[in-house]
Amino acid sequence: MGTVRFASRLESGGLGSTTRRVSAFLALMWLLQAGQIGAAEQPSPLVTRVGVEYALAGHAAAFAETGIPAVKYIPDAYSWGNMQPSAEAAVDFSVTDRYVREFQQAGFVELVLALRSKSSWASVDCGWLACDQPQPKPEYLDLYEQWVEAVVERYDGDGVDDLPELLRPVSILEIGTELSSYEPEVVGDYLAMLERAHRAAHRAFPGVQVAHAAILVTTAFREHPTPDEYEAAFAAVAPRIMAHSLADIRAVLDRPELFELVNFHALGDPGEIEDTVAWLEWEMAQRGYERPIIISDTATTPFIAWGAATRCTGPVGQLGIVVPPATENDRCRLADFFTLLVNADPETLEWTHAFVGEDLVKKVMVATERGVLLIDTWSTEDIPIATLPAFQAGAGMGAWAGMVEATANLFTGERVVHGRRPAFYALQQVMSHLGPATTIRRLDQEDPRLRVYELGSDESARWVAWLDAGVLLLPDDPVPSAALTLTTEPGTVLVESLVTRPDQTAPDRLYLVSDGELEITVTPSPSFVVAPAPVPSPRRPGGRHQGAG
Q1: Structural domain contains residue 162
Q2: CB–CB of 277/298 below 8 Å?
Q3: How many Å apart are CA 514 and CA 461, to the nearest integer?
């Protein structure tokens, strides 16, 4: 296996990240993204809460082991039509009660409720197979408002009509799940619904934080456009991804009185998060307001999605859309790869499960450094139907991204977790390093492919580092590497490789003695460095660590 080595040293200087202000933002942000200035001169407060989606009954105890504080239940389980089967029926809270009770008792502190208006009887046009207009019919708008108010009231913690076992308020509320084919109605109808929902939610609980349906713009930032290039970049996104135009998205952003949180979905590569946050902050700055940003849904970098991935020829409208770092030149290589994956080739599955964990950690670190308030990681389990050969890997890598393996208890409906994959332990690992941290900053590198994040805490200095190859890497490709020199306090340093093997439940750890400089080898799989090490005695002397390939 060939390797490429580059020498790089840590340097600091440049731009703050999470304490962003409107003034002077635009010029500084684009200088940073263009690589013309360094990273943060001062560390930024760590504010991000990490969650997981889509949770189901029975998942809480297992995922509490990861140390994440947040969770998002699968929204279709408690859509309006499922909670209230007719206009005359009472609201059935059994599913949401179970969700709130189970996860709060397991220690989760930030639960997200995503309220979908879809209903076979109340929506304008919503059947079993398609829901083209999920907004309420005019005659049911008041009833919709009452439903939203009732849900918020039950979990607001004010002692009135609350769930008896409620431990703390549920304060994050999404209205709709995604401004895409999930909310295909015209934007004016969606805004009318959002206005009613916002009013009802705040009538029940003044402290609720309402998020609009998440914005989805995957591939818009393929070429890292600047503000004067935004319109052309968004116009180039396939309608399969962007069912709503940039004008529609801006119509939502024009109404900040209707939401406390700006919301988007990160379904591309980790770097897409940086571009999307920068764009949303620019849009808010143009309108003279600020809102916290959340990522209520992520997915493993798909490589190809929104169409067939197991073949590279045929009608363009049927083939999947290539997502960075993949390019059109990779389409046939990916067809071969996904063919192995849908046929459950053991080596391909093992590589995929390792990649899922690596991608998850990168997204968490990028979002945390950008000051995102919440990021829900993907996914609790695989999507079984999307892994079938007939689906042609149409959801890309995300179909195989389950962190646990589980079966359903036929009597209780609960999921019974019987296996944990590398991504589960990778999430646990990154949380073990974020947990003690109070600040974060990205450190500038001579080699732009190196990503190094410094976590500050009272206990120790910590770094998370990986090499961003910028190209598609598949199982048979050589693994690139780069040498990274860290300046540390003299003494024992802990170096951890990310959990990636199916037999691992804890990371490989290496204790080294640093004389003030420590050189490690970084690969696309993240590494973690702690100085001073929590364990005082090194296994062996030396100052070099070979990163996992």
Answers
A1: yes
A2: no
A3: 14
In a domain, 101, yes or no: yes
The dihedral region occupied by 261, where left means phi > 0, alpha psi between -120 and 50, and beta the remainder, is beta
SS3 (DSSP) at 385: helix
Give 334-388 pLDDT, tens digit per residue: 999 999 999 999 999 999 999 999 999 999 999 999 999 999 999 999 999 999 9
Which tokens in the block code for residue 189?
């109808």
- Tell me the CATH number at 158: 3.20.20.80
Q: Which residue has the tokens 């959002």?
A: 194
- The sign of the CA dihedral 70, 523, 381, 127 is positive
Give the pLDDT mean for 256-271: 98
User: Is 318 among the domain residues?
Assistant: no
CA distance 520 to 511: 12
Q: State how many domains the chain has.
A: 1
Query: Shortest CA distance to 184 belongs to which of 133, 142, 127, 229?
Result: 133
**CA–CA separation, 483 vs 219, rounded Å?**
31
Domain span including residue 225: 56-298+371-380+403-434
272-314 residue pLDDT tens: 999 999 999 999 999 999 999 999 999 999 999 999 999 999 9
d(CA 375, CA 190): 24
* Residue 282 domain-assigned (yes or no): yes
